[in-house]
Specification:
The complex is a heterodimer of chains A (111) and B (112). By secondary structure, chain A is an all-beta fold. Chain A has no helices and 11 strands. In chain A, strands 2, 4, 5, 9, 10 and 11 form a 6-stranded mixed beta sheet that branches. Helices cover 0% and strands 48% of the residues of chain B. In chain B, strands 2, 4, 5, 6, 9, 10 and 11 form a 7-stranded mixed beta sheet that branches. Chain B is globular and about 40 Å long. In chain B, a hairpin with a 7-residue loop joins strand 9 and strand 10. The chains are: A mainly beta (111), B mainly beta (112). Chains A and B meet through strand 5 and strand 10 of A and strand 5 and strand 9 of B.
């Protein structure tokens, strides 16, 4: 089946930028997503990008998409301790019924 | 609005026992999903529903059954629990035209 892969752990210092990377294999992906999961909670959508876009910026978040390399990244500027969570990369076709998730990257922000 | 709620939050079963997990949403969403989350793996889709009275298989449906008798509820059943079904189960819902799936807080199930 199609895969979504991401590294499992990332540790940064408060105030630094965090970059979480993701690769996917399905060339027909239409939407790519970043979800955040805080301890004991469900996933919450952080941001998404259409496959025909290269970049999307939303306040401290910047999403970069390299469709040729099937590489997605999430940059968090000025990372805060409240950003500590697990970040999931996901992709889907034109509808949400075929969403595929990566294993999640646990971001730890040290003061 | 409560959003998506799941009952129970935690459960321990013995091998062979049965149970039903309840997911409820108050957003009038058409689509509902059951996922399982295992360490080191992404969420995997078990079953989903595109409307009241409909269900469909996802990536890992074996050992589970579902029902969607009311639009707001989506039930996940385990008829004969196995240790391999130890996992955290998430329910999600969405509506037509939305890119976002709204997730419940999860149910942590342990089968001994």
């Amino acid at each position: 089946g199609e895969d979504v892969e991401q590294s499992l752990f990332l540790s940064v210092r408060e105030g630094d930028s965090s970059v979480i990377n993701c690769t996917y294999t399905d060339s027909s992906s239409t939407y790519l997503y970043w979800y955040k999961q805080e301890p004991g909670a469900g996933l919450q959508l952080l941001t998404y990008i259409f496959s025909n876009m290269d970049m999307k910026q939303d306040q401290r978040l910047t999403v970069l998409l390299n469709k040729k390399d099937k590489h997605l990244s999430l940059r968090i500027a000025d990372t805060q301790t409240g950003d500590s969570a697990i970040y999931f990369c996901a992709e889907s076709g034109p509808n949400n019924n075929d969403m595929r998730f990566g294993a999640g990257t646990r971001l730890t922000v040290k003061p | 609005n409560a959003g998506v709620t799941q009952t129970p939050k935690f459960r321990v079963l013995k091998t062979g026992q049965s149970m039903t997990l309840l997911c409820a949403q108050d957003m009038n969403h058409e689509y509902m999903y059951w996922y399982r989350q295992d360490p080191g793996m992404g969420l995997r889709l078990i079953h989903y529903s595109v409307g009241e009275g409909t269900t469909a298989k996802g990536e890992v449906p074996d050992g589970y059954n579902v029902s969607r008798l009311k639009k707001q509820n989506f039930l996940l059943g385990l008829e004969s629990a196995a240790p391999s079904q130890t996992s955290v189960y998430f329910c999600a819902s969405t509506t037509t035209g939305s890119y976002e799936q709204y997730f419940g807080p999860g149910t942590r199930l342990t089968v001994t």
